[in-house]
Design goal:
CATH topology of the largest domain: D-amino Acid Aminotransferase, Chain A, domain 1
Mean pLDDT: 96
Largest sheet: 6 strands, antiparallel
Helix content: 25-40%
Pathway: Purine metabolism; IMP biosynthesis via de novo pathway; N(1)-(5-phospho-D-ribosyl)glycinamide from 5-phospho-alpha-D-ribose 1-diphosphate: step 2/2
Radius of gyration: 21 Å
Distance between the termini: 46 Å
Strand content: 25-35%
EC number: 6.3.4.13
Catalytic activity: 5-phospho-beta-D-ribosylamine + glycine + ATP = N(1)-(5-phospho-beta-D-ribosyl)glycinamide + ADP + phosphate + H(+)
Structural class: alpha+beta
Low-confidence stretches: none
Keywords: ATP-binding, Ligase, Nucleotide-binding, Purine biosynthesis
Number of helices: 12
Organism: Balneicella halophila
């Protein structure tokens, strides 16, 4: 079986490693991949939907899995289906649940999904005027895709005005900021729940806790993710019950009623508060770096699970009775400016799983090529043991100006 995985980060490397556990997988292709994916498959140069579609047809690809959101929102699934190609992911209309936050909030409100109160604006002056009518802190969001960076928590009116100006006037997120949401601030703990959807049922995966900020204690700038633990220690049985009742079930009802049926991933970004469990956002693909922490705990075969979802069959996800900790090593200066091309040393000494996020192979050496460079993942019977193992491995790896948070999984 030939599989094409679209993307170039640690998530795609992790998907490839897990899929390769099934003996049916004979060839893996990655577009465009990285130095890690090159070790388990073939990297190809194709980035547009037409190029990817042509490659899948001419190389008799049996299944395509889309890692990143941009192509899903652009309608890659629709084009592949029109060409008789098997692909795992939402069609263009359903992908708006991630690609358009205003669309997603309207959907949540219509079907009774528990979420923060909000208002949307396309007029800059109207949005500014609204800032005098609300409580602070508040949340200002660009409605479109912004690579995980289009959400700003404003502590006061002045910060909210600055956020609005940057998004709507300066266009720091381009056209994604043409519409904004000003939303109630929820105080609590975030949780990520990935799930598989077969058009009839949603099967949630084990929970995860992402660490978004660059600095320890959740300080500094937002990043794509500095580390993850799974399961999330704050996701109790009570939280799962509330999630199922107030978020998952009404979401499923809305998808069916609106005819937004597809086979793919639904990622629920949750906030656990004293007032209950709220949905912050939907993503319609695997999270990064959540995937890297969650998949090593999956006991079931990922390929079988994916094929069952595509075929509308029952999906059975079994999990190891273990914990995982994923620590992300980044280039110095990330998430702002950073240098590339530094030699990565020490990988051969690692005793745990690792996934390459931003590195390329040059003359049989791995050199940094991105902000997030490496995901080191350890599993163990306890959360503390997994955390200890992960950090022991991190110390074995070196590259110039490397940086990582030292408090991933520390919930004391």
């Amino acid at each position: 079986m030939k599989i094409l995985i679209i993307g170039s980060g640690g998530r795609e490397h992790a998907l490839g490693v897990k899929l390769k556990e099934n003996a049916k997988v004979t060839e893996l292709f990655f577009a465009t991949g990285n130095g890690g994916t090159a070790q388990i498959g073939t990297n190809i140069v194709a980035s547009t939907i037409d190029e990817l579609c042509d490659f899948a047809k001419s190389n008799s690809i049996d299944l395509t899995i889309v890692g990143s959101e941009d192509l899903l929102v652009a309608g890659i699934v629709d084009i592949f289906h029109e060409n008789g190609l098997k692909i795992f992911g939402p069609h263009k209309e359903a992908a708006q649940l991630e690609g358009n936050k205003a669309f997603a909030k309207t959907f949540m409100q219509k079907y009774g999904v528990k979420t923060a109160s909000y208002k949307t604006f396309t007029d800059y002056k109207e949005a500014l005027n609204h800032l005098s009518e609300i409580h602070y802190p508040t949340v200002v969001k660009a409605s479109g895709l912004a690579a995980g960076k289009g959400v700003i928590i404003a502590q006061n009116k002045q910060e909210a005005e600055k956020a609005l100006h940057e998004i709507m006037q300066d266009k720091v997120f381009g056209d994604s900021g043409s519409e904004v949401l000003i939303e109630e601030f929820l105080e609590g703990v975030e949780a990520s729940i990935l799930s598989y959807y077969n058009g009839k049922e949603i099967v949630p995966f084990i929970s995860a806790k992402d660490h978004k900020k660059i600095g320890e204690g959740e300080t500094g700038l937002n990043t794509g993710g500095m580390g993850v633990v799974a399961p999330n220690p704050y996701v109790t049985g009570d939280v799962i019950e509330k999630f199922q009742k107030n978020i998952l079930k009404p979401t499923l009802k809305g998808l069916v009623v609106e005819n937004l049926q597809f086979s793919g991933v639904i990622f629920f970004g949750l906030m656990i508060t004293k007032k209950g469990v709220y949905l912050l956002e939907y993503n319609l693909r695997m999270g990064d770096p959540e995937t890297q922490a969650v998949l090593p705990l999956l006991e079931s075969d990922l390929l079988t699970l994916t094929e069952n979802a595509i075929d509308g069959k029952e999906m059975d996800a079994k999990w190891k009775n273990q914990h995982s900790c994923c620590v992300v090593m980044v280039s110095g200066g990330y998430p702002q400016g950073y240098k590339k091309g530094h030699l990565i040393q020490g990988l051969e000494y690692l005793d745990t799983t690792y996934f390459i996020a931003g590195a390329q192979e040059e003359n049989n050496e791995l050199r940094t090529s991105g902000g997030r460079v490496l995901n080191i993942v350890a599993t163990a019977t306890t959360a503390e043991e997994a955390r200890k193992k992960a950090y022991e491995q991190v110390e074995k790896v070196h590259f110039v100006d490397s940086f990582y948070r030292k408090d991933i999984g520390d919930i004391t």
